[in-house]
Prior knowledge:
Elements: E1 25-30, H1 34-44, E2 49-55, H2 59-69, E3 73-74, H3 78-82, E4 89-92, H4 96-108, E5 113-116, H5 123-136, E6 140-143, H6 150-161, E7 169-175, H7 182-185, H8 193-209, E8 213-222, E9 228-237, E10 242-248, E11 257-261, E12 264-269, E13 276-280, E14 286-291, H9 299-311, H10 322-339, H11 348-351
Parallel strand pairs: 1-2, 1-4, 2-3, 4-5, 5-6, 7-10
Antiparallel strand pairs: 7-11, 8-9, 9-10, 11-12, 12-13, 13-14
Helix pairs in contact: 4-5, 5-10
Amino acid sequence: MWLCAAWVYTVSGRERQGREMFKQKRIGIMGTGRMASVMAGTVRKMKNVKCHGVASRSEERAQQFADEYGIKVAYTSYEEMMIDDKLDLIYIATPHSEHYANMKLCIENGKNVLCEKAFTANAAQAEEILALANEKGVFVAEAMWTRYMPMLTTIKGILNSGIIGEPVMLTANLGYPIAAKKRLTDPALAGGALLDLGVYTLNFAAMMFGREIEKMESSCILADTGVDASESITITYKGGQMAVLNSTMNGLSDRRGVIYGPKGYIAVENINNFAAVTVYDTNYKVMKSEKAPKQITGYEYEVSACLEAIEKGQKECWEMPHQETLFIMKQMDELRAQWGVAYPFETTEILTGEVEDTIPQNTDLQA
């Protein structure tokens, strides 16, 4: 059996089954959509952490959610959530268009934040949020869950081992037939495939090939509402590598990421929840295959990472540092500029760096 020392990695505390490297913590959930439900169900099965409260724009919906998941407190508003000093971390699972205003509210009230991807609607908002967090001394992280998964360490270890030689190209595909969802097609909710699905392909490329980009080209098909429905992105790196990334909200894809080299290739199954990685040689024969470790849902890794960082007094996670969040946000801004896609709340001032608090107040929808 093939084995390379470069593939050996140190297992962190939260990757050891049944252990979390932090004392008892309480989290609150902002929003009551599908992702909020997954998070609530995940936390119920974790050790040393519990979901203490949930907030919604609808008091009735918050109470229903609390009853369903055995959560102690159902806040009557987001503002009421801010005065609860028992919360160690607030997980934001509202639409993309709401992230800026929701995080700003939390940070101004000294609350630590784990916010769903995409972090904000654009880079200018992200920069303001991170500057505010730095000013207030508050922890903030983006919930790009693949960044926190132990399987990522395995994949990168294989890549860095040299088993396929120097990588020259990667492809990544992610698509689901989800265009019927309002949050995907409504420009006022920062809809479109990019912030919901393309963000995964961009992160996959960044995790494997880094940030030294020479140029980025793309093509896009727009939905009737003006948001991006399908896109193909080609990134050329200064080192000579290339990444070809495809995403769509109109059809089902294989969700695969493949990294190509002169000695073989690495296939990653499910780039938005790593399931397995397989190495093939030049004869297309399997050299090595690894499955992801058993998990609750995969959300537990980002929660543990945040709570460990908070326990240590850190203000960001090394798994998803602020500079990586900004890098991806700026990439998505550039892509939307290529396509002519803008959201109605984005003024000229926002896109040039002067953020106005003009985020629409919508009901809770899946982030």
